[in-house]
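Before a colleague's protein record goes any further, I have to sign it off. What it holds is a sequence and that sequence's fold in token form. Would you go through it and say whether the fold makes sense for this chain? The record follows directly below this note.
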Amino acid sequence: MENEKEHHNENFLYKLISGELEQEPFGRAMCTRFPPEPNGYLHIGSAYAIHTNYAMAQKFGGNFHLRFDDTNPLKEDIEYVNAIVEDIRWLGYDPGEQIYYGSDYSEQIYQAAVTLIERGKAYVCELSPDETREYRGTLTEPGKNSPYRGRSVEENLGLFANMRNGGYPASSMVLRAKIDMASPNLNLRDPVIYRIIHAEHYRTGNEWCIYPMYDFAHPIQDAIEGITYSLCSIEFKDHRPLYEWVLEGLGIQAPPRQREFGRLSLTGVVTSKRFLRQLVTGGYVDGWDDPRLPTLRGLRRRGFTPESIRRFIEEIGSIRTTSTVDISLLDHCLRQELKEKTVSVMAVLQPLKVVITNYPEGETELLTVENNSENEALGKREVPFSRTIYIERDDFVEVPPKGYHRLSPGSEVRLKGAYFIRCEEVIKDPVSGEVTELRCTYDPLTKSGTGFTGRKVKGTIHWVSAAHAVKADVNLYDKLLLDESAPTREDGSWADAINPDSLAVVKDALIEPSVRGVGPEAKFQFFRHGFFNVDRKLSGLEGALVFNRIAPLKDTWNKK
């Protein structure tokens, strides 16, 4: 495809990897991986990383692995594992049978640590965590060697074996790589590569009480699986020398290579797993799948499709540094995905009763309405019409401003797919003065689809038949955070950052009967209101029907 070639020309990762592969450095097929820690749910930033690894493997005819970084039993759970697998498959980046677990390599990683000790490249250290930080130095001052750095190979091997056998309490000692305490890169100042954790692991149980650090386990796992490229976000760039040091220290031939891409940030959206957890545990949102969150579960529940998310990521392209993208681009991609695929139905969110006084009582008429004005292939449907209908309350004003083309006393509008009606009388509540009902007349000669060419009206409004309407609750979403720069809250207090209008619940909205019986995640375009999705969590509970607005019809992308 020509477009694909053009995209390749603009993709710095593709150009970089193409140049390296011309030298045939690996002697094996291209292979990438996505290594999530199963301690939370994936979010839109995760989707960008998954896409980068998956797409690059596809472009070079290689394989894509999903490998769980499950080397910390204090945080991980099978619930997250299952959710991550489900979300990745839902997105369309199915790894097939290529699903792996870092914990399955525990013995090999342990033996790799033993090899480093035997080669004089690792030692057991008994500094406390506070002492370790003190000895580490700063960005401007070199660190100091640990007093345990000079232990013999034999002593280190014995201590490390006792660590494995459970001979010491947690935090009493660690295994550290012996590199350079004066290195300008703090990651190379004798980093910890193994620590003691007495906790049950969700896969290995109590078989192990020592666990490798990610920076140590990661390159070894890549080497075991035959990964050629570890593609990760830019914050890991300073970790690359340690990645390479581990592989070199173990004598790995044709080792995998770490290459970095830019980190994706979105306006007004928190993608830090730590801060997302604060929002969830603090009760600021309705769980990890709250439709206001950028988690894949939240986006799916709100109604975003895998195709719209993939389109969003492809629109961004390959980025070199941390980049902030306007969240409205995601809405734009959703609209582009759904505008020709969804049925447009009539839904009245703030009902105002209208009685058509000259329409026969007790009569129901089926009117033919197009399903999508932009896609004739979606066909048409029949909608019931009767004497009493409901219109949107803001489609009527008693004193219309200049240029107002909807309903007002004495004026005429077209009911979408139906007739012209004229407002003849306004009924009000005698106490509050609120308009409670309109009395109107209709012109039977103005039925839609009959070729009527008489007088014209400028306004068309939607409606539902009172006797046939389906009741539903409708959730209208706005941005979760007031500040578009996505503030952080180290103390976990988000009360002053939350937009109080991020969720408005409309009870007992009235929708035409074509939506009766639809299943979870069914999507519609509500005439003039936007794109909506049947809530997969709340719909069906005690017969409830709940719609989430995915995005309004107005597209603000690149129009500010």
